[in-house]
Amino acid sequence: MGVFQTIAAGSILRKPLFAVVAFACVALTAPAGFAQSLTQDLPETAPLELPNIAPPAGKGDLPKIPNLNEYANPKAPQNSPLINEPELVLTAKLSEESDAISRGLVWRVFSPEPGPDGKLSLLATAKGGTTSFNLAPGSYLIHVAFGRAGATKRISMTRAKRSETMILDAGGIKLNAVLSGGGRIPPDRLRFAIYEDHEDANGERALIIPDVKPDSVVRLNTGTYQIVSNYGTANAVIRSDIRVEAGKITEANVEHRAALMTMKLVREAGGEALADTAWSVLTTSGDIVRESVGAFASMVLAEGEYVIVAKNKDKIYQRDFKVVAGRNEDVEVIASNGASTAATPNQPADGEEPLD
Which of 184-188, 199-203, 236-240, 276-280 is the least confident region? Predict the structure, then answer.
């Protein structure tokens, strides 16, 4: 009875279950006196104290969090060795008359003397609009970029605070293109490239910005640039010179005299296109304009006359066709003794009306 009384009192329930079972086995096999002496010598177990658990949110006071000291605060004087140096405040404008640019600027501060590698050391950078730097007395090169427009200025710092306004002498250009007669060109088929206005010794112009999307604003320094507009990836290319004025956005729309042509090789007019066909489109003088392989050959071609050659299973078929500006068409080549047929009726582009 002594063993069972001790278990009921709860002094052994705090032990693991296997310990309780082992102890009970020993007690049943040992003499009664031995069991009683064991129970009498067991030490008193202190009550288990559970930690206080914070109540759920909204149902009581939150536990107090000890105060944390600041660690590596970048604004603390001891962590910013230049904080006590004179301040240089920088502002940029597109022109003398325009307002200060509030965003989109990239500022860079360079050492005026090149390092061992022959390059200027970059000392600090900032982005946004008006900005400031703490600089030790000395000479610096300040560069500001706004898109592809930029300006550089040498500034000497003393112990006094200084403010400087950079004049970019820049503007913007917004490009787009239309078909002859005002038809819309799908934006995913239209791209622009911007070149310098003058040619080098080899008669080539330096590329400034490639792959410009339509209706996007490109920021450039004041000057004249050559704009190249590509409708599709074949020969529908227009070149024009555009003047960029300081503080202004110049919108330029070029006109393409071209059309989207879809070629297919068929056994009879209106039939299914034959797969595994190799296509070559040539000018009337024999120059290759574009080549492709597949059941259909879709390409944008400039207005004019062409020769199309289709090769399928070692047989070659050929026909002449004409591209009319703004008139998208299907061109069928009949796989019958190399004969050719006239183009199918006009197929205007989605959302467009026939121009004739």
Answer: 199-203
* Rounded Cα distance, 234 and 287, in Å: 13
Long-range contacts, stretch 188-192, CB < 8 angstroms, 24+ apart: 189/231, 189/232, 189/260, 189/300, 190/214, 190/229, 190/230, 190/231, 191/229, 191/230, 192/227, 192/228, 192/229, 192/230
By the 8 A CB rule, do 327 and 306 touch? no
Q: Which residues pair with 321 in a beta bridge?
A: 306
pTM of the predicted model as reported, rounded to 2 decimal places:
0.66
CA distances from 102 to 132, 134, 145 (A): 14, 20, 13
User: What does the alpha-carbon distance between residue 208 and residue 220 come to, in Å, rounded to a whole number?
Assistant: 10
Are 209 and 147 in contact by the 8 Å Cβ rule? The answer is no
Tokens at residue 304, please? 């004019």
CB-neighbour burial class of residue 28 (10 A; exposed 0-12, middle 13-18, buried 19+):
exposed
